[in-house]
Design goal:
Layout lengths: L1 E8 L12 H16 L5 E7 L2 E8 L6 H20 L24 E7 L5 E9 L7 H9 L6 H4 L7 E7 L4 E6 L4 H8 L5 E8 L5 E5 L4 H5 L9 E5 L7 H5 L7 E4 L5 E4 L1 E2 L15 E10 L2 E7 L7 H15 L19 H8 L8
Parallel strand pairs: 13-14
Antiparallel strand pairs: 1-3, 1-4, 2-3, 5-10, 5-14, 6-7, 6-8, 8-9, 9-10, 11-12, 14-15
Helix pairs in contact: 1-2
The chain binds fructose -6-phosphate and magnesium ion (MG) (2 copies).
Length: 364
């Protein structure tokens, strides 16, 4: 069995919240290289999506392994030192605790992990997002694993015709439910269509029970009890064979749907698919974006990455995202560009209400 762990954190932006400094990525690489030499890791890849540092690791220790989580935590601490030396913006911002206690969950970083038996060919796509929150994967995951208009394999591939099962988390009440596609899609969509509250944590192949996809569902603001940054989630998808083909996995991102996040984590904006080198959100600190790193696994080795959105066939999605960005921006401080009151990460409402309290009078 091999475990793929993707653990990420924003531990300092360059410049502002737009990207990651090369020295930070270099330091991350150095820490991972040492762990590989020490045989803790089989392989790794370090990259960034905007201001989030992404540690992609393979090992044989299973999910939620203390040594792997500690490695990620210590790597973030080392990188934070670099971020502090360079006075990068928000150095260490996602590390909510001072002391590691066995697992990075609940401590700030986002985590997606899956353990499986590597197949004869094991194509994996790792999606990483910046300036948005964990529910952003609901729409693409529905399209990939439940919508025959996206994934023709659900209709014409015998090994996929039985459908997939979705594990949906209620991120506010801390509850979960498993629902099956296709029979229960109407129930499923009731939850998945409200991504601020319900996020797809995992997807399973119903016939084999094999894990197909896992995402990070950590909500930073709920962990910290205050705004510290957006979740900027990640999502792993296994592809080909009994899973959707690479092209079926990427297809939903041709539609730059509206997601929450963007400036000050308080706006709706288009989810723009970009090449890794273009994941530097600068326009109004956005718009929110997503990158896709493709790998073939070989005995746990990460053969890759291929930069999957670095393809002219996604130019149109980027252009439309630009147009949607203009249109949404034209609303300025008005909803639905600005998030509803209770969803905004930043607000001055309590202070303003207090200041104007006496000037509010009852309606006749
Ligand atoms: C959104 C984000 C940025 C910041 C904004 C203000 O997720 O990271 O839009 O919210 O740049 O940042 P601070 O408060 O650090 O000055
Ligand atoms: Mg940041
Ligand atoms: Mg970020």
């Amino acid at each position: 069995m091999i475990t793929l762990s993707v653990i990420k954190a924003d531990i300092g932006g360059y410049v502002g919240h737009s990207s990651s400094h090369p020295l930070l990525i270099e330091k991350g690489h150095e820490c991972m290289e040492k762990a590989k030499r020490d045989k803790l890791l089989v392989d790794f890849h370090v990259t960034n999506c905007g201001d989030d540092l992404q540690l992609i690791m393979t090992h044989e220790r299973g999910e939620e392994d203390e040594a792997i989580h500690k490695l990620a935590w210590d790597t973030f601490l080392e990188c934070t030192k670099v971020a502090k030396e360079l006075k990068l913006h928000g150095a260490g911002q996602d590390l909510l605790s001072d002391a590691f206690s066995g697992n990075v969950k609940g401590m700030g970083p986002g985590v997606a992990e899956m353990e499986f038996e590597e197949r004869g060919s094991e194509p994996i796509i790792i999606f990483m997002a910046d300036k948005t929150s964990s529910g952003a994967w609901n729409f693409p995951l529905y399209k990939i694993f439940a919508d025959p208009f996206n994934t023709i394999g659900l209709v014409i591939a015998e090994n996929m015709h039985g459908g997939f099962s979705f594990e949906i988390h209620d991120v506010k009440e801390h509850k979960k439910i498993n629902l099956n596609a296709p029979e229960e899609i109407y129930d499923m969509l009731l939850f998945m269509g409200a991504p601020g509250r319900y996020a797809v944590k995992a997807v399973y192949h119903r016939g084999s029970g094999e894990i197909a996809s896992v995402s990070s569902t950590q909500r930073l603001s709920m962990m910290a009890g205050r705004y510290v940054g957006k979740d900027d989630p990640v999502c792993i998808v296994r592809s080909q064979g009994e899973f959707p083909a690479v092209g079926e996995v990427l297809e939903p991102f041709t539609n730059p749907i509206l997601v929450e996040g963007w400036m000050r984590g308080s706006h709706h904006g288009p989810f723009m698919p970009v090449a890794v080198r273009e994941s530097n959100p600068t326009r109004f600190d956005g718009p929110p974006r997503v990158i896709a790193a493709g790998f073939q696994l070989s005995g746990g080795k990460l053969v890759g990455p291929r930069d999957m959105f670095d393809d002219p066939s996604f130019d149109k999605a980027r252009r439309i995202a630009g147009e949607i960005a203009d249109y949404m921006r034209s609303h300025g401080p008005f909803e639905p560009h600005r998030l509803p009151l209770e969803e905004m990460e930043y607000t001055t409402m309590p202070q303003v209400i207090k200041k104007l309290e006496k000037r509010f009078t009852d309606l006749e």
